[in-house]
Design goal:
Elements: E1 4-7, H1 8-38, H2 46-71, E2 72-75, E3 91-96, E4 102-108, E5 119-121, H3 125-130, E6 138-143, E7 146-156
Parallel strand pairs: 1-2, 4-5
Antiparallel strand pairs: 3-4, 3-7, 6-7
Helix pairs in contact: 1-2
Length: about 160
């Protein structure tokens, strides 16, 4: 089984979601199924079908999170010493060559990615282009709008 990289923050978020699913959501859907069963005929009971569908989703998500946590390699970016190179967990300040716009991204696991918060997936084209580079290097990658070039201004391990 391949390992799944996660930051400490990402692992905590998954643990919280797993706890919520097991302790709150699972019990709520069981109650909804019981209430729908009490209404009688299940063959035409939309509430029963909806509750069963939701139960399937919840149980599937619980299994998915447990599987990811079992295969997780939890990385604390603050403990990294990659000699200034861009690695998983690093926070990278970039400057787009064509416009001069500055952006800052942290490279995180797929489940943690949220572009609005500056968190990009390690499997994204821009992250793959930056891995292994250091300040002063240029990361070039294919975006939907064409080739993009960013100069790496600074690499931090927060």
């Amino acid at each position: 089984m391949a390992t799944i990289p996660l930051t400490k923050r990402g692992a905590e978020k998954l643990k919280e979601e797993l706890h919520r699913l097991k302790s709150v959501e699972r019990h709520a859907v069981i109650q909804a199924i019981a209430e729908a069963r009490a209404q009688g005929d299940l063959s035409e009971n939309a509430e029963y079908e909806a509750a069963k569908d939701k139960q399937g989703f919840i149980e599937g998500r619980i299994l998915e999170i447990e599987s990811k946590m079992a295969a997780a390699q939890i990385i604390d970016p603050a403990m990294l010493d990659a000699g200034g190179r861009v690695v998983f967990g690093a926070t990278v300040e970039l400057e787009e060559e064509s416009s001069g716009d500055s952006v800052t991204y942290q490279i995180v696991g797929d489940d943690e990615a949220d572009l609005k918060q500056g968190l990009i997936s390690v499997s994204s084209p821009i992250a793959r282009a930056m891995i292994g580079k250091e300040a002063g290097d240029v990361a070039e990658f294919q975006a939907p709008g064409g080739t993009r070039r960013y100069e790496i201004v600074e690499v931090r391990y927060l």
